[in-house]
What we know:
The structure holds 2 protein chains of 2 kinds. By secondary structure, chain A is mostly helical. Chain A has helices spanning 4-10, 24-46, 53-58, 60-93, 99-111, 114-125, 132-139, 147-172, 176-183, 188-216, 220-225, 236-246, 248-273. Chain A has a single domain (54-273), classed as MetI-like (MetI-like fold, Orthogonal Bundle). Helices cover 75% and strands 0% of the residues of chain A. In chain A, α4 (60-93) packs antiparallel against α10 (188-216), α5 packs across α8 (147-172) and α12 runs antiparallel to α13 (248-273). The longest helix of chain A has 34 residues, at 60-93. Chain A is globular. By secondary structure, chain B is α/β, with parallel strands linked by helices. Chain B folds into 2 domains: 47-128 and 232-265, D-Maltodextrin-Binding Protein, domain 2, CATH 3.40.190; 131-229, D-Maltodextrin-Binding Protein, domain 2. Chain B contains 9 helices and 10 strands. In chain B, the strands form 2 sheets. Chain B has a 5-stranded mixed beta sheet with strand order 2-1-3-10-4. Chain B has a 5-stranded mixed beta sheet with strand order 7-6-8-5-9. The relative contact order of chain B is 0.18. Chains A and B meet through α2 and α12 of A and α1, α3 and β7 of B. Chain A: The chain crosses the membrane at residues 21-46, 66-92, 104-125, 137-166, 195-213, 250-269. Chain A: It is found in: Cell membrane. Chain A: Residues 66-267 form the ABC transmembrane type-1 domain.
Amino acid sequence: MTPPAPDTRKGGRRPGPIRTGVPFALLLPALLGLAFLLLPLVALLVRAPWHSLPEQLTSPEVWQALRLSLVCATSATALSLVIGVPLAWLLARTDFPGRGLVRALVTLPLVLPPVVGGVALLLALGRNGVVGQWLDAWFGITLPFTTTGVVLAETFVAMPFLVISVEGTLRAADPRYEEAATTLGASRFTAFRRVTLPLIAPGIAAGAVLAWARALGEFGATITFAGNFPGRTQTMPLAVYLALQSDPEAAIALSLVLLAVSIAVLAGLRDRWMTAS
Amino acid sequence: MTTRTARPARLQVTGAGVAALLVLSACNSSDGTSSGAGSSASGPAKVSGTVTVFAAASLQESFTALGKKFEKAYPGTEVEFSFGGSDTLAASIVSGAPADVFAAASTKTMTIVTDAKDNASPPLTFARNQLEIATLPGNPDKVTSLKDLTRSGLKVVLCDRTVPCGAAAQKALDASGLRLTPVSYEQDVKSALTKVELKEADAAVVYRTDVRAAGDKVDGVDFPESADAVNDYPIAPLENARNAEAAKAFVALVRSAEGQRALTEAGFLKP
């Protein structure tokens, strides 16, 4: 009776992993699921053109696409932070009529097929779009087929991830700290800046990484809204897709780069998610 | 005590892994036999069931119309189309996409399929297509030649060079010694055309048939260099067709007088 007791306590208060008697009915589908998720990645490694990989990866086209992808994903994340964090705060900390509806609309791009997002962006911000025609007429700004267009397309698709993540963290955070700050004379913005932001920093960081990863992989909205031109709007996923038609080896090489970047992102988030269970 | 119980659990894991593989391979083989039985059932000359046609994006309108004719001619059949860039379609056929017929916009993209020996019989040319410039309605930028497209400030979209329409456009540009920097290389001819229809681009180099299909949403401008870059459209039933009879019948319809009339009406040239 007494010997196993210290062992379970070592695992912490949360229920630890089951050590014995895994039911077969759960184990089989679980292993199938694991194999299903891992097999394509293994195939990518098995079929990788390892001998020609060095030249594939040192070609200027690959670096051009990778550099553009990194620049655009980072810009999209920065833009998401600037407008997404305040939006998350508004959704979590204020009460206004139709807040539930606004929240649902914010998450819409999460479920919307990205190509549809691209079409919507064209109709809104295109040269002939609802808003875009005035941008063109007044400022001479046209967004489709530009790198800015890529950033906007990626922001549209990625920002909801940040908003959701930050809003969740805000709801979990105790609002009494902010209230205490305001009763001590801080303005609400000061309280947000000096109390709330440091409090939810981990949530913002996680949301930003998630948004960045989503932006990096963005394909549908980008090719629809920003088109495809090497060095200007051809990001890695577009390069992979188009290379697959003409030069599958190059497509595999490009995919490996994206896979490596994804693993790096996961490694960066390791402390937050992988150990969360 | 705990370590000893952990070990049998691990053994169980490998056992289940083997079982999982067995289940997977069993699924695979049963799938293969059932589809084989399906095709042999529809074997005896009678054309029925679903026929899946992979066709170049430029064939969208004419093939959709021919598909309706086919369904009428063979009651009980259904034609499913997948339209896209010929190179994309060829690549997906080679990697095992379930198609019965492939109609490409160039012999080069058909070669991808024939090289992999995925065609059931040699491809036959059923139409030819010539390039044309699509401009905004009323041609506000006064584009009259291929050279006009190289003007600075004009937003031009081309098909990607891997797509037949892009290869043909490049050929025409090279033949006339022109250098054109487009704003985008689109993945098929319809997305190039759409950019002009939405007025996001000023002009696109597409096929004459696309300009005609777009109606009054774009204006067409002929250019003499297009004569040097006429595309042959080959069609072939596929080796791994699940509905070989219907595939043959569809190819026959496309090459029949009726099919040729529909294609000519859409603006295609005779083979």
